[in-house]
Specification:
alpha+beta; 19 helices; 7-stranded mixed beta sheet; 392 residues
């Protein structure tokens, strides 16, 4: 297979080589190219010291000098360039205590997590750990001894499952056994890093792989204890809050505490709580009542939720799917901002303060049951009648 690196990467490699240094594209970009995916992030490994790299390029950011890493900007592309190195002494199960610089690319590749990520490319492929073969076999396998590799950096346990989900690969037997054996080390890892990997896992091709983590107590420190997780999670729309809600639902835990523990962003947490509510409670079958909650999710999210209830609970949601289509196609009002009347209009009538909010909700209620009333003249008439009534 002939792999072609982007011109800006070739330019960086040639610049380093012209000064008698080696340089290779490494990591995920090479892996993605070999399986036919389009890479978006490129990393380069070189035997040039970081301070030398900084002298060879015009735009350089010293992003990780203590690790031998700088970021070079070429043709508006940011590329990390790291000096060949060997890491050792991971006392915190995450970061190396000592970094020493290596002599060649094979030594540098030997410190990487999985064989499929330990392939280098410039004009030729350097593959000392048979990563290409594992790509062909669709296998996730550590570089060298799995216990040593996973104990160095426990996050690699989650990364193994994440790659398994994203690529729909199988985790090699010894690597899987080591993940289970060393799973307790994940509790040492920052929750932000764990959440980042879980998000990628759950939005991959095979999120069901998380059941192996859950049922081997690897995620119990988060509150996700062994329980039944259906394979049908793979059939759900690829919407992170929905899949998170389904995971927590089947683990028998409420998501709020877990997601706060993972430092999830407020937007995601809010959506997960809404999905969770409608997993535990079926949405109302009455049109006006359904419209009352319709603003909680987007039309696509409602359809995803209704499909999830059909897949997971074997429900016939034809009416609710019809409601969603009708509301969307007819642009029926289901939130205050869709009413054809403004706050200024209500103030002219005499509404002030909290009265404005109360009246907007009254008018919305009227339009939920009779959407044809959403005309400015009619809404003003209703508002005037309500205001007169309030005076008595």
């Amino acid at each position: 297979m002939q792999l072609k690196l982007p011109d800006f990467i070739t330019k960086i490699i040639k610049t380093l080589e012209s000064h008698n240094f080696e340089a290779y594209c490494v990591g995920g970009a090479v892996r993605d190219m070999l399986i036919g995916d389009t890479p978006f992030d490129f990393d380069i490994a070189t035997n040039a010291p970081a301070d030398t790299v900084m002298q060879l390029f015009d735009k350089v950011i010293p992003t990780g000098l203590k690790h031998g890493t700088v970021t070079v900007i070429v043709e508006n592309n940011a590329v990390e360039i790291t000096t060949y190195r060997i890491d050792s002494g991971y006392t915190d199960s995450r970061h190396p205590d000592f970094i020493s610089y290596a002599n060649d690319i094979t030594e540098d590749l030997s410190r990487r997590d999985f064989t499929i990520n330990a392939i280098a490319l410039n004009r030729k492929i350097v593959d000392p750990f048979n990563g290409k073969r594992d790509l062909e076999l669709k296998t996730i396998k550590t570089v060298g001894d799995p216990d040593m590799r996973l104990r160095e950096d426990a996050l690699r346990i989650l990364r193994a499952f994440r790659f398994s989900s994203q690529l729909d690969f199988t985790i090699e037997k010894n690597t899987l056994q080591s993940c289970i054996l060393n799973g307790h080390l994940l509790s040492k890892i920052s929750r932000e890093r764990i959440y980042s990997e879980l998000k990628k896992l759950l939005t991959g091709k095979n999120p069901y792989i998380i059941s192996t983590l859950v049922n081997n107590n690897i995620l119990s420190f988060l509150g996700l204890c062994p329980n039944y997780i259906p394979k049908e999670i793979n059939l759900l729309d690829n919407i992170l809050p929905l899949r998170l809600a389904v995971l927590c639902y089947y683990c028998g835990v409420y998501s709020k505490k877990i997601l706060k523990n993972l430092h999830a962003d407020t937007k995601t947490l809010t959506k997960v709580l809404i999905f969770e509510q409608f997993l535990y409670n079926k949405p109302p079958n009455y049109f006006a009542e359904f419209k009352r909650i319709f603003a909680f999710l987007s039309p696509d999210e409602w359809n995803a939720l209704l499909d999830a209830r059909r897949i997971l609970f074997n429900e016939d949601n034809c009416f609710l799917k019809y409601f969603t289509a009708k509301i969307t196609s007819e642009n029926q009002p289901y939130k205050i901002s869709m009413l054809n009347i403004s706050g200024t209009d209500l103030k002219r009538i005499g509404y002030t303060g909290k009265q404005l909010v109360i009246e907007f909700n009254r008018l919305l209620d009227a339009c939920l049951y009779s959407p044809e009333k959403n005309k400015k003249d009619e809404l003003i008439k209703l508002a005037i009648d309500d205001f007169k009534q309030s005076l008595y």
